[in-house]
Write a structure and sequence with these properties.
The chain contains 14 helices and nine strands. The protein has about 450 residues and is an alpha+beta fold.
Length: about 450
């Protein structure tokens, strides 16, 4: 008998049931724990943050939208907004592109599984550990930082580095004087048959590169001379003279200059002596600055200019494996007949990739891209750990500014809450786009 018939007969109505046939109170009972957690962990924090963002730092005075005005007028917060925009525009796109490339290329190699494992391994590392790793990688000293060790090695392969960067003439006994660009030029001229003595200081004998020989006084009728370290451990000897035990400076470039033009040049031998052609007679001697230039120490990765790209590089290292695995899963579902048909029709591999593979993977690529966009909006750990204190302001992002404003010494919970609400408002449109896309996929 139906509920209408029961009402006409005077019988009490039957209990209401849900669409699935379950009584409503039973469904509510089962959903209650989830609703309590949702309210406690999501709804209440959002509501409280909105309320708290309308009050001052102490929470006593109502300030309305002043905290939101401060967000867009404070220089530090504006820098955080700019850097967050850079993160959203660059990091997800780079990670997705690398993931796509890795997924496509590893399909064609026998060791593709091992490569995927290696690329995915950074995902097992926490942001804290990754930040510590890359703080060491980006160390300025090439002896400690891997990045600068690689850069300096490549640089020194193609460019000759200075042999004696801290050497300088012994001003007490030498007539070599600074002549610009780090070079030193003699005030007097050199004559054939009179060896030139060019004593140097500024380097400890035990810090000379290689195994230097003892210096030797030059001799002969030509234009000759000696470049040596006019100092020895334990002291002794006469200044400006080549004494026993004093070390030679090998490989020093010596130029003969007349009227501002270089007429001859040579480099010192292992014993520190050098010989110039007869055309150098009457010239002044110059030691170019290239002999004493400071060695190339690489790039200032964590300086104001490169700190944000450097941190993005660390993020890409961590998340490229995540993108690769998801895209590879989507690639496994692509109909191979379409790819083969395109090749039979004469398409090359680039055309197959651009016109078949990428369009077929578009839904997966959108998922990866949107997921990463949401993720980078709340990036905090890497920036806080990798960026040194002097350049942390240049690398600042909204999530870090929220922490600094509220808990990092600022103590302004109102401003921090306002930044949190702004982050929420930035994430909501991306989430809406993702939900609509999922609904369209479900309707197909």
């Amino acid at each position: 008998m139906s509920a209408v018939a029961n009402e006409r007969a005077g019988a009490p109505p039957a209990p209401r049931k849900s669409v699935t046939g379950t009584r409503v109170w039973v469904a509510v009972l089962f959903l209650l724990p989830a609703l309590v957690l949702l309210g406690a962990l999501v709804v209440y924090p959002i509501g409280y943050s909105v309320w708290r963002s309308l009050y001052d730092a102490g929470g006593d005075g109502f300030v309305g939208l002043d905290n939101y005005v401060d967000v867009f007028t404070d220089d530090a917060t504006l820098t955080a907004v700019r850097n967050t925009a850079i993160w959203v525009a660059v990091a997800p796109a780079v990670v997705t592109a690398l993931g796509l490339i890795f997924a496509v290329l590893t399909e064609r190699v026998r060791w593709g599984t091992a490569f995927k494992l290696i690329v995915f391994m950074p995902m097992a590392i926490s942001m804290l550990a990754a930040g510590i790793i890359f703080r060491l990688v980006y160390q300025a000293d090439p002896d400690q930082g891997v990045a600068n060790a690689v850069v300096t090695t490549v640089h020194d392969t193609f460019t000759d580095s200075s042999v004696y960067p801290k050497a300088r003439p012994n001003a007490q006994v030498s007539d070599l004087k600074p002549s610009g660009d780090g070079s030193f030029t003699s005030t007097g001229t050199v004559r054939a048959g009179t060896p030139a003595l060019l004593p140097m200081v500024g380097i400890a004998p035990n810090r000379l590169p290689g195994e230097p020989q003892d210096a030797k006084a030059a001799s002969g009728d030509g234009v000759t001379g000696t470049v040596w370290l006019d100092f020895k451990l334990g002291g002794g000897g006469e200044k400006g003279q080549v004494d026993a035990g004093e070390k030679a400076l090998e490989g020093v470039k010596v130029e003969a200059v007349k009227d501002g033009d270089v007429v001859a040049s040579t480099t010192t031998k292992a014993d520190g002596t050098f010989t110039l052609p007869d055309s150098a007679d009457g010239a002044r001697l110059r030691l170019p600055g290239s002999n004493f230039a400071a060695p190339y120490n690489g790039v200032d990765w964590l300086g104001p200019t490169l700190v944000t790209p450097a941190i993005i590089g660390a993020y890409v290292w961590m998340w490229a494996g995540f993108a690769m695995v998801l895209i590879a899963a989507g690639l496994a579902g692509v109909d191979r007949n379409l790819l083969e048909a395109a090749r039979v029709d004469g398409a090359n591999e680039w055309q197959v990739f651009r016109r078949i593979t990428v369009p077929m993977l578009a839904p997966v690529l959108v998922v990866v891209l949107i997921t990463l966009m949401i993720n980078v909006m709340k990036i905090f750990d890497l920036v806080y750990i990798i960026a040194p204190q002097p350049t942390q302001d240049e690398a600042n992002v909204l999530a870090l500014q929220l922490f600094l404003s509220s808990f990092g010494g600022g103590g302004n919970y109102g401003l921090g809450s306002a930044i949190g609400i702004i982050l929420l408002l930035l994430v909501v449109p991306v989430m809406i786009v993702n939900i609509r896309r999922l609904r369209k996929e479900r309707e197909r």
